[in-house]
Automatic annotation (TrEMBL):
Matches recorded under InterPro entries: C2_dom, C2_domain_sf, Copine
Pfam families reported in the protein's UniProt record: C2 (PF00168)
Domain C2: 10-110
Protein name per the record: C2 domain-containing protein
Ranges that cross the membrane: none
Molecular function per GO: calcium-dependent phospholipid binding
Organism: Chiloscyllium punctatum
Superkingdom per UniProt: Eukaryota
Length: 110
């Protein structure tokens, strides 16, 4: 056990290992799963076919950029989307995300 503890100490970074010229903003990957409940039924003859579009606002910018989309879930007002959004979470920085829900009326290419 003592050897294991010594090996762990040797693998740990010390303050002397830190190079501020090579440092980057601390970040980690996060996974976001989306589901909706009690969506409005906007289709006439069936239930809505929702899709969620994730937008990210640029840091220091007001511009929203599309990051990704879920799959379309047909005829559901309570969809649990399978597609997950994986993105970098930057500590100490405010990151604005916007989730827009749309009803897909047809299988167009857009």
């Amino acid at each position: 056990r003592e050897r294991q503890q010594q090996a762990n100490r040797e693998r740990m970074a010390s303050i002397g290992d830190f190079d501020p010229l090579q440092a980057s903003v601390p970040a980690t990957k996060i996974e976001i799963t989306v589901s909706c409940r009690n969506l409005l039924d906007v289709d006439t003859f069936s239930k809505s076919d929702p899709v969620v579009v994730l937008f990210i606002q640029g840091i220091g910018s007001k511009e929203w950029r599309e990051y990704g989309r879920t799959e379309v879930i047909e005829n559901s007002l309570n969809p649990d989307f399978v597609r997950k959004f994986v993105l970098d979470y930057f500590f100490e920085e405010k990151q604005n995300l916007r989730f827009d829900v749309y009803n897909v009326d047809s299988r167009s290419t857009n």
